[in-house]
Amino acid sequence: MIPKKIWQTWKKPYAELPTVKGNNLKKLTETWKRLNPEYAYYYCDDDTCLKMIKERDEELYECVLECNRVNVVSMKSDIFRYFVLYEYGGFYADIDTVCCVPIKKWLKPDIRFILSPEDTSIYFQQWFLGSEKGHPLLKALLDNIKRKFKEGIDYSDADFVHISTGPSIFTHSILDFLGIEKRDELRELSAGYNKLAKVRDLGVFIYDDYRYFREGKPHGVVWHLYASIFWFEANYDNWRTQAAVQSNVA
């Protein structure tokens, strides 16, 4: 079972959450608390994230230090969401998400790990995740990320974040562990995947209906605003345009 915990993170303390393109991020976090009163809510700034990872996983902490060195915050955020769910369990939600429907109203019973394809149906989205503590899918994913950093990140590749910590490595790690061949029709094939013995044995459920988790439009149970695309000063989403710069400091 997925513990009744909700995790969110941003670079600064909670009191300093800003308003982005008219969206007050602190008010967005309140939707998670208000609609899920039976859940414990945890907000972690950068310092807290670093401390938590260092105390639990020195090898992963070295990966985060590398993210700091090249100043790409999105990679740290990716690592933290996987780490915190593996170590403690619960739900992780990006800071620019809105809880539209209480978790208890849509979460299927006995689910240990939830997935949902992106709108493009090419990758699983990872801006909203739910997992039990210590789920083997997250262990496999974190091991793959550590391996990527040990081998060396190719910062000249414009998609280095996507490949190293983002949706690409997230999706491929999960499909590999489940023994599923990578296809570009994840949403269309998800109903069939949910019937696979290994998927069921691991307590995984793929919410294939686009109405569950939506990006950019106010529909579904969780709405992702994509506010991060405006945080250029924090290097949250402008890593594609900075690939050459990061390559020079590698």
Please describe what this structure looks like.
By secondary structure, this protein is of the alpha/beta class. It has one domain (5-249): Spore Coat Polysaccharide Biosynthesis Protein SpsA, Chain A (Alpha-Beta Complex), CATH 3.90.550. Helices cover 43% and strands 15% of the residues. The chain contains eleven helices and eleven strands. The strands form three sheets. Strands 4-1-5-8-7-9 form a six-stranded mixed β-sheet, sandwiched between helices. A hairpin with a 2-residue loop joins strand 2 (19-20) and strand 3 (23-24). Helix 3 (58-70) crosses helix 6 (136-151). The longest helix is centred in the first third of the chain and has 16 residues, at 73-88. It starts with a strand and ends with a helix. Mean pLDDT is 88; it is low at 229-250.
Describe the secondary structure blueprint for this structure.
Elements lengths: L4 E5 L9 E2 L2 E2 H11 L4 E5 L1 H11 L1 H13 L2 H16 L1 E4 L3 E3 L3 H4 L6 E3 L12 E4 L4 H16 L8 H5 L2 H12 L7 H8 L3 H5 L2 E3 L6 E3 L6 E3 L18 H7 L1
Parallel strand pairs: 1-4, 1-5, 7-9, 10-11
Antiparallel strand pairs: 2-3, 5-8, 6-11, 7-8
Spell out the key features of this protein.
alpha/beta, Spore Coat Polysaccharide Biosynthesis Protein SpsA, Chain A, 3-stranded mixed β-sheet, 11 helices
